Amino acid sequence: MSVFDRFSRGDTDDAGEVTKRRGLVERYVDSVTSRTGGGSFVTKSLRKVFPSHFSFLWGELALYSLIVLFLTGTYLTLFFEGSQEVVTYTGSHEPLQGQEVSAAFDSVMRISFEVKGGLLIRQMHHWSALLFVGAIALHMARVFFTGAFRRPRDLNWIVGLTLLLLALAAGFTGYSLPDDLLSGTGLRITNGIILAIPFIGERLAYLIFGGEWPGTDIIGRLYPVHILLIPAAIVAVLSIHLALVWRQKHTQFRGPGRTEQNVVGERVWPAFAMKSIGLLFLTAGVLTAMGAIFEINPVWLYGPYDTAAATSFAQPDWYIGFLEGSVRLFPPWEFRAGGFVINTLVFSGILIPGIVFGGLFLAPTIERRLTGDTADHHLLDRPRDAPNRTAAGAASIAFVAVLFLGGAQDVVASTLDFSVGHVTTVLQFAMILAPPIVFVITKRTCVELRDRTGPERTERRVPVERTADGGYHIPDDQLEDWMLAGGAAPGHFDEMADHSTVRGKHAHRDESDPVHADEEALDEMRDDAGADR
């Protein structure tokens, strides 16, 4: 039997045998699998079921933005020169002509103004990076708030967080490559944080930057890390993540027919595959439109990096905003320990990010210790069903959000016409007070929502299909579940009609005895089906 026999539609011919209608994809896959002996594996793969819920799309969105990143990054690699060698700019942008710039900045300017499609590809690449990190963050938030990180997926939670860290590293290294004034300022802060590490800081900074700041090697070293090492690590970790998802089966929300032992949803082929391919093209189309319409990272306005200059209102990409805010908001503490100076950068640039990500990595262990729950879980929780977990997550987001605002405290002060000192003080207090306040409010809200009486269900019990004449009907294979659950008698529903009125040959619903009336209609339909056969 061919791989797609179970998924093909067919009609009955005069001899009573089913004639299959197979498309190009089915014929091609059958041709390959018949030669390689992989038919059973492919068949099993295509029959795998994935649940359908909008929140599950964040992971796919991250995957498809990564594909756009790889494609646009490959194009940019053909023209970018990762070197800090000093050259004279002679390109088409007149305000910078004759200035001494690095070869890296010169190549970025030529990509932006002289390479065909260069600026579009550059901006697509940058927007894709922002979307990639954002989609991973939203995906991880969904996993946390629904409890999908519990056994047996605690290992995959760690894999996902590792992927998030790699995404941050890829974004930061790529952001630093143009060697413009904005990215150079970010690298200068990084150099200061590394120097603040006790004992090894100075040696490590010299090793990475090739000498005292700004050094001569940092761009040349970041370039292969950005285009080779980090992408290879992302592909490896992503492969492990997808393999674990495939092996452990996908989680699903609670609902009719859904248990810890099954998955209710759509098969990979054709429904899930078609939706997924559609999302891929939609993602690529939106990113292309954003690259064409919205300007981002205009390095020609910042100019080449100059150690004696600094940009006003300089902001990093959003995913580094929390680290920038930590550096700006942390008080100027400093003390000596063992002959080494422990200054504020150790706390703000190393300790706080370490606590944030350390807490995320330990989340499965912390939950297991606090709840004593060591069982395997395949059904997801609603956030309201786990008030303490949801409150802790909301408090953590509040803390990071304050840090994020702190990374733009000068912009906030200028916008509100306040002094930078006053804005900094307010945000410092918010950094301490906001998390516990958000925790209490969120927990109370979750408890109230969990304990209040609500509807028995909030989704359709069975799917409803549209007919060619504009009506609606319940699929035949879902009728029995619908009738036994007290649904209206089967038939085609007018789009604007009340659902208690049935068109066709079946009787109206008997309100005095709804279950009995439904059973009679079901028996009538079964008799009709038998007569048709």
Write the layout of secondary structure elements.
Layout: E1 9-12, E2 18-21, H1 24-36, H2 39-46, E3 49-50, H3 57-77, E4 86-88, E5 100-102, H4 103-113, H5 118-145, H6 154-176, H7 181-195, H8 201-209, H9 218-248, E6 252-253, E7 266-267, H10 268-293, H11 299-302, H12 321-329, E8 335-337, E9 340-342, H13 344-361, H14 363-371, E10 379-380, H15 387-406, H16 409-416, H17 420-451, E11 465-466, E12 472-473, H18 479-484, H19 514-532
Parallel strand pairs: 6-10
Antiparallel strand pairs: 1-2, 3-7, 4-5, 8-9, 11-12
Helix pairs in contact: 3-5, 3-10, 4-5, 5-6, 5-10, 6-9, 7-8, 12-13, 12-15, 15-17, 16-17
Précis, in short:
With 533 residues, the chain is mainly α. The protein is built from 19 helices and twelve strands. It folds into three domains: 5-47, no CATH class; 54-252 and 268-305 and 313-381, Up-down Bundle (Cytochrome Bc1 Complex, Chain C); 461-532, no CATH class.
Distance between the termini: 26 Å
Number of strand elements: 12
What is the fourth-level CATH superfamily of the largest domain?
Cytochrome Bc1 Complex, Chain C
User: How does the major sheet shape up?
Assistant: 2 strands, antiparallel
Q: Structural class per helix/strand content? A: mainly alpha
Strands in their spatial order, largest beta sheet? 1-2
Using the CA coordinates, give the radius of gyration.
Answer: 29 Å
**Average of per-residue pLDDT values:** 82
